[in-house]
Amino acid sequence: MTRNSCLAAALAIATLAAPATADLKLPRISPDSKVTQTVGLTDLTVTYSRPGVKGRTVWGDLVPYDKEWRTGANNATTFTTSDTIQFGGKTLPAGKYGLATVPGKDEWTVILNSVSDVWGTVYDPSKDILRVQVKPQPAPYREWLWIGFDDIGPVAKDNINLVCNTASLVIHWENLRVAVPIEVEVTKRTLAACRAAIAEAKADDWRTPFNAARYTFQNEVGLDEGKAWLDKSLGMQKAYSNLTLLARWQMKDGKKNEAIATAKQAIAAGQASKDKVDTTEAEKLLADWTGKAPGKKS
Question: Where are the alpha helices (DSSP H) in the chain?
Answer without folding.
Answer: 3-17, 187-200, 207-219, 223-236, 240-252, 256-272, 280-290
